[in-house]
């Protein structure tokens, strides 16, 4: 599928709306961070003409799922997050920083230290084959 700048802008605007009107159990601080991130990305894409990175597309997709499911359906979304993180840690050129960012984007109230520790533990689990 070819990249469509207008299509990306449209989807980001819909994501921004989805985050803003979500009334589920997501904490307000986390929602605020997600809104700021989404609005920054919209500005970068719309006003500057930048193309989002692969990680930004992944994070936007995770947010779309995060703000669109019922709490009972979020478990499968979390499983998908771990699959993506595992993929980032096991790819040819592992991206630990990308994995930490993804974890922080999904678990919005996680500190940088906590996120790094979780990703480090996950990396060790993968290396040991657990």
Number of strands: 0
- In total, the number of domains comes to 1
What is the helical fraction, as a range of percent? over 70%
Binned strand content: under 5%
Largest sheet: none
- Apparent shape: globular
The count of helical stretches stands at 6
What structural class do helix, strand and pairing data support? mainly alpha
The low-confidence parts are none
Radius of gyration: 15 Å
Short description:
By secondary structure, this protein is mainly α. It has 6 helices and no strands.
Give an overview in words:
The protein has 130 residues and is an all-alpha fold. The protein has one domain (5-128). The chain contains six helices and no strands. The chain has helices at 5-21, 28-48, 54-66, 74-90, 96-106, 112-128.
Question: Which tags fit this structure?
Answer:
globular, 130 residues, mainly alpha
List the helices and strands and how they pair.
Blueprint: H1 5-21, H2 28-48, H3 54-66, H4 74-90, H5 96-106, H6 112-128
């Amino acid at each position: 599928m070819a990249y469509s700048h207008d299509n990306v802008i449209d989807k980001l605007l819909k994501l921004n709306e989805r985050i803003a009107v979500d009334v589920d159990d997501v904490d307000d601080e986390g929602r605020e961070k997600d809104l700021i991130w989404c609005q920054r990305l919209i500005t970068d894409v719309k006003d500057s003409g930048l193309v989002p990175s692969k990680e930004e597309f992944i994070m936007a997709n995770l947010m779309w799922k995060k703000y669109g499911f019922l709490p009972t359906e979020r478990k499968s979304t979390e499983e998908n997050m771990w699959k993506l993180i595992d993929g980032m840690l096991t790819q040819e050129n592992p991206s630990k920083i990308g994995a930490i960012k993804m974890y922080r984007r999904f678990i919005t109230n996680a500190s940088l230290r906590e996120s790094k520790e979780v990703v480090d533990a996950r990396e060790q689990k993968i290396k040991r084959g657990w």
